[in-house]
Q: What sequence folds into this?
């Protein structure tokens, strides 16, 4: 087979380029530009673009162990309490409420300022329809979550659901509104407001 | 005749089946303490970890632990092979755990078998007591697969070598035993098989008659026909009598392993198995605790028999002979926390009859912390003895008349009772003063007056009562029924106008009584009951000063509500109750009710902190307790009762000191006895009760991190003048930080220092030419 010389190949390429009209080149450029946006920018955009509502509670926050001895004990106790809470969550997700409740209470006994344990204990009691216990437990959770508006919104949302279950609709509405004021993305609160609105009609 | 015999055999078959398949044994219900969580940062000495391990039958070894129940300690590591344990909701399989230590503190926890780092490890609960019937049989049921094969081999070898070959009776064995006994001229060997021994113990009495032997033989054969060898052997292992511990009988190999060696059956060695097997023929004769040489001799004979039957090798034989024999029980049989156990029994009696508790083998998991319990017992006894040394008038010869006390410890956020000491000495008096006594709370009751006040408006100012509200501590008289009542202060001085805080910190009777009148006695009583007082209250003016008797545990609940942010939690001693089939019969969960707002509760805690810093409980600081703490002293009328209730954010303890209410004819000074002849302690809560509390809490919080009370949202602090309650300023700089619910703080500033140096103040005024 005879190989074309390099100069000849280049001339062919140039000829093929010159064979297209400017409009075709514009279309080609637009196509590649669009591809660039899709491939490069879309993933970046996705990470920055938040969904409209958050459907479930955020993960539990663990605590780092400080160098100072006393802080290490506090952090260690807190982390152990979080671990027990996580174990309880596993049971809760399997609807094994007795075991879950036992672990949440153990978590509270170990570290009485663990807001997540109070929250999930309240949730477990809510599932068991023990509404009179749900509210004080959520009060405790709220006390220790003052600086975390995302989590606080879930506390308010669960309070709203509890009041709703107790047919105390005005209080329920107020709690849902408080929830959305803390985090407008809270899906539970949004759904709650919608439910109450449809009830009133 | 044959028909009658067939009917009789049929009847016996029914007896055999009924008992074997029914409830075979009366099993005492067992009571367990709370489990203990290990985590990073804990001080091994502070949590008394080694003591806890030893109470849980863990033994130190000189190298890496190889079996459950062993631990290995060096300055920088503690390896523990955790025991298997059946919790209420899980069957825990023990594994080797490594705690890496740095200057005594845990810096890392690792599962050595799973090779993973852990956030926590759990030490199983401690057995603290059991409920027995009158026969007092201690028994720990085991399965055949929980027992090492050399234990069953040893038993078979020495008691019934042909166990797996006969049909319940062994004619060969009977003939051999007859021949040996004839040769010796005495009964030295029995011919009974293991099955016959089981029948004798399980079904029949101990009479040695021909009729009974005949019945025993038939029932043994019937047992062998209806059940397997393994089932019969397992029943034997659980039934057999293995010795005495005082009045308590030890039954079954499960309990025998624990009693003689402090081990679970699966952990015993060949030598230990031989010793246990050797006890079967005469447990008390061959007990190593009574006669070591006889026990050794018997053990060697068992091992020799096993060797002859080729159950063990020569080297195993020699090794087993060398093993040490314990000469005293490794595990103390003493009942722990007797007042707590009695309290528990009372709580259980609502759902479980006495018969069930002594025979159904329930496992009851409680909230008790055994380390805190031991400390509470020590602190109370030590404190009472020290009072008797300091004040010899308090000493009584007769133990029944001695100075008494109580100490109850709660975890306020859960209501868990961590320790309960209902008296000085349970063997002298089983009366549980924590839950059964009714005593006047004295100044402790003042908390309820101030609690009621924080929920109301001050009529003088039209604003809510706060720590700076002004009260009048001047003489007054009020009618109380058909009499007139004029309260007086402890120091017999009237203090005039004082702030609410000052009145509370100094425990001023007059100001408090007046406040109660302004608030309303009914409101005071109502809030006391809402917070936790269940005893009926006399709604008279003196109620404010604690003249109505209450149960100490109720007072603990009421104060606990304050610690818990205004949420009342009923005290809890039981966590779970589990039956012998591992079914959870009952789980007691947190039950709380909001009585005060969290802000109102914090205001009261802040007042109670002041009582310790500046008020009647200053001795808490003087005695060296430096952690953030809130508390209240209480002294009842005529000094009959001396109280102190105090709490850190995590732990609450209530102490009382006094004499039991028995009329005593004593010719002592008027101030030492009341007009009814009752004894009085003649000391205040600060003098009598505070030292016991400090002794306990210092030990209980040793090595634990210091935590402070959480300030809830809606609370602000302002520096205020202590005398006027107005905002501090240059004119009156000596203020204290007072807590207020936002919107209730004072707005007026104090201009002149009541106690300041007027000369200095005037100098500055001149300098600045301020008119």
A:
């Amino acid at each position: 087979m005879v190989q074309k010389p390099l100069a000849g190949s280049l001339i062919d390429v140039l000829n093929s380029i010159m064979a297209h009209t400017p409009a075709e080149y514009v279309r080609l450029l637009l196509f590649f530009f669009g591809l660039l946006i899709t491939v490069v920018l879309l993933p970046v955009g996705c990470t920055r673009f938040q969904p409209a509502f958050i459907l479930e509670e955020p993960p539990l926050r663990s605590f780092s162990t400080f160098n100072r001895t006393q802080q290490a004990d506090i952090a260690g106790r807190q982390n152990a309490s979080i671990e027990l809470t996580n174990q309880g969550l596993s049971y809760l997700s399997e609807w094994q409420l007795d075991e879950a409740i036992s672990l949440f209470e153990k978590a509270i006994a170990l570290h009485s300022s663990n807001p997540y344990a109070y929250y999930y204990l309240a949730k477990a009691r809510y599932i068991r329809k023990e509404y009179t216990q749900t509210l004080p437990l959520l009060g405790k959770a709220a006390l220790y979550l003052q600086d975390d508006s995302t989590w606080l919104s879930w506390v308010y949302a669960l309070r709203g659901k509890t009041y709703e279950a107790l047919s105390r609709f005005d209080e329920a509405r107020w709690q849902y509104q408080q929830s959305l004021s803390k985090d407008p993305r809270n899906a539970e609160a949004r759904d709650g407001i919608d439910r109450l609105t449809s009830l009133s009609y | 005749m044959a028909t009658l015999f067939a009917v009789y055999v049929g009847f016996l078959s029914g007896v055999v089946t009924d008992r074997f398949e029914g409830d075979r044994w009366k099993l005492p219900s067992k009571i367990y303490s709370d489990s203990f969580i290990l985590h990073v940062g804990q001080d091994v000495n502070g949590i008394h970890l080694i003591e806890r391990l030893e109470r849980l039958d863990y033994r130190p070894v000189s190298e890496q632990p190889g079996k459950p129940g062993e631990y290995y300690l060096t300055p920088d590591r503690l390896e523990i092979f955790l025991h298997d344990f059946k919790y209420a909701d899980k069957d825990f399989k023990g594994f080797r755990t490594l705690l890496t230590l740095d200057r005594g503190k845990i810096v890392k926890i690792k599962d050595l078998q799973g090779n993973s780092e852990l956030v926590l490890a759990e030490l199983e609960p401690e057995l603290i007591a059991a409920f027995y019937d009158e026969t007092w049989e201690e028994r720990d049921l085991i399965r055949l697969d929980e027992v090492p094969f050399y234990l069953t081999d040893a038993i078979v070898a020495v008691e019934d070598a042909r166990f797996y070959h006969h049909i319940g009776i062994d004619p060969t064995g009977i003939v051999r035993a007859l021949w040996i006994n004839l040769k010796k001229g005495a009964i030295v060997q029995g011919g009974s098989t293991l099955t016959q021994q089981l029948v004798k113990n399980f079904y029949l009495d101990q009479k040695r008659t021909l009729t009974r032997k005949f019945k025993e033989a038939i029932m043994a054969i019937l047992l062998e026909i209806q059940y397997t060898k393994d089932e019969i052997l397992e029943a034997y292992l659980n039934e057999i009598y293995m010795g005495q511990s005082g009045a308590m009988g030890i039954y079954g190999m499960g309990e025998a392993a624990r009693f003689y060696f402090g081990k679970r059956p699966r952990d015993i060695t060949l030598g230990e198995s031989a010793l246990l097997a050797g006890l079967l023929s005469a447990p008390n004769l061959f007990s190593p605790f009574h006669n070591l040489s006889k026990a050794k001799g018997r053990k060697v004979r068992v091992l020799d028999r096993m060797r002859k039957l080729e159950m063990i090798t020569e080297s195993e034989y020699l090794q087993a002979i060398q093993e040490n024999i314990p000469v005293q029980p490794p595990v103390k049989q003493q009942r722990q926390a007797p007042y707590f156990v009695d309290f528990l029994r009372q709580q259980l009696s609502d759902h479980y009859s006495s018969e069930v508790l002594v025979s159904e083998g329930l496992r009851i998991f409680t909230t008790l912390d055994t380390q805190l319990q031991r400390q509470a017992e020590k602190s109370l006894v030590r404190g009472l003895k020290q009072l008797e040394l300091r004040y010899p008038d308090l000493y009584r010869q007769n133990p029944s008349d001695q100075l008494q006390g109580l100490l109850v410890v709660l975890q306020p956020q859960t209501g868990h009772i961590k320790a309960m000491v209902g008296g000085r000495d349970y063997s002298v008096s089983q009366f549980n003063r924590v839950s059964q006594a009714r005593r006047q709370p004295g100044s402790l009751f003042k908390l309820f007056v101030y609690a009621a006040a924080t929920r109301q408006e001050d009529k003088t100012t039209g604003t809510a009562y706060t720590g700076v509200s002004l009260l009048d501590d001047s003489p007054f008289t009020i009618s109380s029924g058909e009499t007139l009542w004029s309260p007086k202060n402890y120091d017999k001085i009237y203090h005039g106008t004082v702030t609410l805080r000052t009145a509370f910190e100094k425990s001023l009777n007059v100001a408090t009584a007046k406040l109660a009148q302004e608030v309303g006695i009914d409101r005071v009583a109502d809030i006391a009951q809402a917070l936790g007082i269940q005893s009926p209250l006399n709604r008279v003016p003196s109620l404010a000063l604690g003249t109505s008797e209450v149960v100490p545990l109720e007072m603990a609940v009421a104060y606990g509500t304050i610690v818990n942010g205004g949420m009342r939690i009923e005290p809890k001693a039981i966590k779970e109750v589990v039956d012998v089939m591992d079914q959870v019969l009952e789980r007691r969960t947190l039950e709380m009710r909001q009585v005060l707002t969290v802000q109102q509760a914090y205001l009261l805690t802040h007042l109670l902190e002041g009582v310790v810093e500046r008020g009647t409980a200053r001795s808490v600081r003087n005695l060296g307790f430096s952690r953030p703490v809130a508390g209240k002293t209480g002294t009842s009328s005529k000094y009959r009762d001396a109280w102190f209730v105090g709490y850190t954010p995590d732990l609450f303890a209530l102490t009382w000191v006094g004499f039991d209410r028995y009329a005593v004819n004593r010719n002592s000074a008027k101030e030492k006895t009341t007009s009814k002849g009752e004894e009085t302690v003649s000391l205040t809560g600060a003098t009598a009760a505070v030292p016991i509390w400090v002794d306990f809490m210092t030990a209980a919080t040793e090595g634990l991190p210091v935590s402070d009370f959480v300030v809830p949202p809606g609370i602000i602090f302002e520096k205020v003048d202590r005398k006027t309650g107005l905002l501090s300023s240059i004119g009156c700089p000596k203020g204290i930080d007072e807590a207020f619910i936002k919107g209730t703080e004072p707005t007026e500033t104090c201009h002149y220092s009541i106690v300041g140096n007027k000369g200095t103040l005037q100098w500055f005024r001149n300098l600045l030419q301020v008119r």
